[in-house]
């Protein structure tokens, strides 16, 4: 425990990449399990390349029928469980939301993507009503530009704040290093500047994101205890 689910019915929103970045940073301090619930098995493939952290366990072959059994088993013995559903709303993506302590919705800064994020939020609301509990949810802006805050991004932030939707302060910037983790295998820390530009900046970005996730989880824990 806790369980973190990446969610967005939009294909290519950045779920798998953000999850991998988060998992490798969390794994620097504690064992992590990833449930690869995407039938294309991107995390399974990445985990087979050299340099994959020994304390990240990858669980695959997830079905509607075995989802809770596999999750309960791994959550009992692992400090962090991260779930990567596929890019269309389906039964498993709903189950993954219903089981989450924190849902992260990656969002690229375009109005079209924001409409998709709205669908992701509706999916969370439906699971909240079914489970009769609040499910903490945060939007993560991904693939943002290092140099500028675009007008669309500023506009979306205001829109989300007005709608009472929480966003991470940290954004995952568009960086070659985040793609390179998958092509070279292993972690960001293993990339060097001959393979990809500014791996150190990607590492700093990844650490800021993971630190914020840990803080959000702590805050939620305190809220629950209060
Ligand atoms: N921060 C980033 N910097 C650079 N490239 C990124 C970043 N985030 C995602 N990408 C790229 O965007 C594409 C889609 O990302 P990813 O596979 O993580 O999305 P996804 O939501 O998991 O997709 P699917 O719905 O198909 O599972 C990939 O090519 C990935 O390398
Ligand atoms: Mg994916």
Automatic annotation (TrEMBL):
<feature type="coiled-coil region">
    <location>
        <begin position="107"/>
        <end position="134"/>
    </location>
</feature>
<dbReference type="InterPro" id="IPR009744">
    <property type="entry name" value="VirC1"/>
</dbReference>
<dbReference type="InterPro" id="IPR050678">
    <property type="entry name" value="DNA_Partitioning_ATPase"/>
</dbReference>
<protein>
    <submittedName>
        <fullName>Chromosome partitioning protein ParA</fullName>
    </submittedName>
</protein>
<keyword id="KW-0175">Coiled coil</keyword>
<dbReference type="Pfam" id="PF07015">
    <property type="entry name" value="VirC1"/>
</dbReference>
<dbReference type="InterPro" id="IPR027417">
    <property type="entry name" value="P-loop_NTPase"/>
</dbReference>
